[in-house]
Input
Amino acid sequence: MSYRVIVLLLSIVMTLSAEGAKLPTHKIRIIGNTTHEHSVLYEALNVQTKSFWQFWKEDTPRIYDRFLPTLEQSLQSFYESEGFYDAKFDIQETPTTLTVEIRENTPVCVNEINITSDYDISSYVTFAKKERFRAEKFIEIKNSIIEALLADGYCSYDLDTKAYVGLKSHIVDLTYHLKKGDICHFEKSYIKGLESIDEEVILSRIAATEGSRFDLDRIKESYANLYGLDVFESVMINYDRKLYNKIPVDVTLKETQTLYHLEAGLGYDTHVGARAHSTLVRKNLMGNAEKLTLKAMWSQKEYLASIDFFKPLLFWIWGYPIDFMSKVGYSNLEYPGFTEEKSYVQFALGYQRERWRLRSGIALEYLDIKLLDNLKEDQVLQQAVNDGNFLLFYPFIDLIYDARDDKMNPRKGYYLASYLEFGLPYSQDASTYLKMQLEGRYIHSIDKLILAAVAKMGVVDQIDREVPESKLFFAGGSYFNRAYGFREMGVILSPTSDSIEGASTMLNLLLEANYPVWGDLYGAVFMDNTMLNKESYDFTGDIITSAGVGVRYMTPIGPFKLDIGFNVNDPSQYGISFQIGQSF
Output
């Protein structure tokens, strides 16, 4: 259950409790306001209004009697912050009703804007002459300038901002005086609080490395990296000390005493249907933040069990910290037309710093592909599925460059990813193949409108002997054509039909637009285009295009998405999907 849902339920309970206790209130009526909507004034004055879920209540604004003694003061403070220093208020009270008449009078407007700066801040000073002065905007501009300076590495700036208000003339003169100073750099990191973890492990997670230019994003990344080790109750990174534009990084840590984490639950996933899952994590297994994770999952379409081991900082190479990870597991996944039973073991080395993520290793898989007699009327079997037993041994490399401003709910930036896998010819019966995937994402915002495009391309080159069907490409689901269920779409035969065989060539283009419609609720429209061809390097086949609408509810852990997509050439083919996080 998400944080927002919990808050909503608590709000409902508190509201019902307040109604049951019948706290004294007055109906409130506000008149005379022309600059601000009633809803803005209600929020500023703590006026209670009907929420969207309170269908049983009368839609009458009410104010608790405990706020009445300070009501005029609250109005005065609000209007002064909005530039109305001469605003007057007439408050009439009866036993049941409060009438507030507002006379805004003449606001204070901007007269002159004087900027003296050796750093370009013109784009941040967004006040215009004759514009009504707002204290909140004045503070926001100052904060934006400071953020820009810090983002460019200037931590020794001298910034002086003033607003000279003429109450009688109703004008304000703004001055911005800035000397940016010299660019700052991080110095050495000093670590405190370690008990069972080597200092080198911590240094491998500090993005604010010695000699790098001062950047608050490096501090944020360091926090994320340290908490990501999952062995600390608290992390404090202090960068307040400054010695001739050199900034030491003081890191204070407290190791967790809770070494086991158990999680279990029931739910529903659009990929695999109803499911039950459990996870057991042993933190700091043998010290140095090593982690052992046991997972088990059962669903309508998949069984899964795995053991993961992670060791941060196996060694340094040319100054880059290299991690080690391994996985042993078993899964049984149902596709349309066949099942894949898989046992596997995987070893990999990884690097993650700033925007880069690299993972490379070797894997051994034993696959048992079995046909199912469960084809639907509209599904086609063009040729034999590559079934049987397969033993695959392959090296792989996974490289990502993530320049988005947020991983769960990006508003701008781009993302590039590539994956390469090569099946080795370890024997005469081995499947030798090359599997390649490329992905690019671009996100751009225009005010509140978020536009996104995601392009994917993949090829499986079957060099010698057949590869198991599950190694080929399938589409459908939240990331691959939302008119179809997860991996339901095989080789495309026409704009309205597909088969159950996997494709050796894949292209997919997702286009999406999100816009807020009410509070944290966003509406979305999207179009997904997919091409899946049987032959390798064949980019000339038919395309299945879907379009649809969706809603996104923003939560602290990311947007909750619900999408409905339709095949534009056959609306009877549709899909419903939901997930946490964006598709871009």
Observations:
- The helical segments are 3-21, 38-44, 71-81, 135-151, 199-203, 216-228.
- The radius of gyration is 30 Å.
- The chain is about 10% helix and 50% strand.
